[in-house]
Amino acid sequence: MKHLPSYILLLLAANACNLDNLERTYDLTPKDNVPVLVMNALMDGGEESHSIELFNSYAQTTEMATASNLAVEVNGSPIHAGASQKGGEVIYSAFHSGDRLSIRATAGSRTVSAEVTVPEKPEILSCEGVLSDGTMICHVTLRDKPGVKNWYRISVDESLAYDHYSRYGLISHQEEYNHSRDIDTSHDPVISSGYTSEGNDLFSAMVPENTWHIFSDDGFEGKEVTLRVDIPVGSLRERIAQLKDWNENNGEDYEEFQNIEGSFILKVYAISQDQYQYLKAVTQMEFSGSDFNFLVEPIPLPTNVTGGLGLVAVDMPAAVRIEAGL
């Protein structure tokens, strides 16, 4: 589940404008002080719990909203109907490529809605990782779906698996996950295109990093492409060391952890054009800050919500496991 910072909600409401075919409908001023209903739902198609967030956005502040009726359907079949909690609701559903998701929320006299299609899962052909100086250098090869325009993003989870023993025997086998956003894709020309270039010049300092690791299939439409993703291993190495230290200092008297294995789960997501534009705008906002001044022009945020503002999207991941060898 992904959350939209409150300052971004304010800027979204204040700076909506026309881009492509997305809805852009509101321009708030402090004098009006009339709230706009904002619905945000950025859903991971690889998960089964998803957050739908609702806010009243004024010109100068935001507050959590409650829907008197929140209706969610997948392919026309209801998966949730009824009032929401204050601030939104968590729904539970597995998504599949091609599913049609519809969300409609009513708060007072205002109703917002959105309908999106779950994208097709990316095709990962291969992935190889080499450990070098505290970094797992991965090369992942994708096959782009021909005949259509595609957009992607990349993320990595750390996995720590072990057998938990007591003096009486095995307690359980466990696998813990820890999301790691601190991957480096700046060495890959496809993912880093248009973002920070190497160097200490003024231009490089004014270009944001691609912190969401998004990219399109420009240049490899319908073809294969090999991407480089660098993963720092320090955090996972430290977690493994903590378990080994426990074994050494306490294992004989209490319990111990055996068969400790660390790995990385590299995920390539297919995303919609809406989400691609949205994350691109958020990246620029995170880099420039939320204050308007003569050096930074207002940054428009995409919205695909009818009757209000916000973004609804489901991204669909393909995943590969890379053994850390730590």
Write the layout of secondary structure elements.
Elements: H1 6-14, E1 36-44, E2 49-57, E3 62-64, E4 69-74, E5 77-80, E6 88-92, E7 100-107, E8 110-117, E9 123-132, E10 135-143, E11 151-166, E12 169-180, H2 202-205, E13 214-216, E14 224-232, H3 234-250, E15 255-271, H4 273-288, E16 312-323
Parallel strand pairs: 1-16
Antiparallel strand pairs: 1-2, 2-3, 2-6, 4-5, 4-7, 7-8, 9-10, 10-14, 11-12, 11-13, 11-15, 15-16
The tally of strands reads: 16
Strand-and-helix sequence, N→C? HEEEEEEEEEEEEHEEHEHE
Helical residue percent? 10-25%
Could you describe the largest sheet, including whether it forms a barrel?
Answer: 9 strands, mixed
> Compute the gyration radius: what is it?
22 Å
Structural class: mainly beta
Count of alpha and pi helical runs? 4
Distance between the termini: 29 Å
Summarize the structure.
With 326 residues, the chain is mostly beta strands.
